[in-house]
Structure formats: C-alpha cells, structure tokens
Design a protein that fits this description.
The protein is globular and about 35 Å long. The chain starts with a strand and ends in a 7-residue tail after the last strand. The chain has about 100 residues and is an alpha+beta fold. The chain has a single domain (about 1-90), classed as Alpha-Beta Plaits (2-Layer Sandwich). It contains three helices and four strands.
C-alpha cells in the first residue's frame, strides 16, 4: 500500500466551492485502478489549506495508472480552478510504527 499526501492551498474564499468540487471529484478518482481510499482534512491554523490523503495499491497505480489517464484530467478539471498554487505531493510506504 502507498499513501499519497498532498498539501493543497486553495484561493481564499473558494473553500466551500473546493469542498463541493471534491465531492464530485472523489467519484472520478474512485474509478482508478488501485485506488483504495481518500480523506480530505481542512487546516485549522490556515483554513485555505487542505491535507489530501489517498491510499493506492502501488505507486504505479497513482503515477502511471491515474496520473496518465483521462480520469486525472477530469479530476483536475473539477478541482484545479480552486488551487492557489500547485499541490505539494509526496508518497509514503508501509507504516514503520503504529500505536
């Protein structure tokens, strides 16, 4: 399992529209091969900042399967207009410690 972590800064004032767009966009990403789950959390200190966590079966499922598909174009079309800047994306592997 691979965990994708994206920090998304949205244009101030567009938070409700972004959250509505994610509701539509999650139906798109859910069609991608290897997709497991999606969680979106809104920042407390910076309310225009969001933490997006997406679980994938493999890194290739995200990078080659989703990012190179027409699904990604639809996903980005729905949410991209709300971005203040490009999302900061990283991938993480299996947990090394849990409680």
């Amino acid at each position: 399992m691979v965990l994708e972590r994206a920090i998304i800064e949205v244009k101030p004032g567009s938070e409700p529209a972004f959250e509505a767009a994610i509701e539509q966009a999650k139906q798109v990403i859910a069609q991608a091969g290897g997709f497991r789950s999606l969680t979106l959390r809104r920042g407390i200190e910076r309310s225009s900042t969001y933490l997006l966590l997406v679980e994938w079966d493999t890194l290739d499922d995200h990078i080659q399967g989703f990012r190179e598909s027409e699904l990604f174009g639809r996903w980005r079309e729905l949410i991209g207009a709300h971005f203040a800047s490009a999302p900061e994306v990283e991938h993480f592997g299996e947990p090394v410690a849990t409680l």
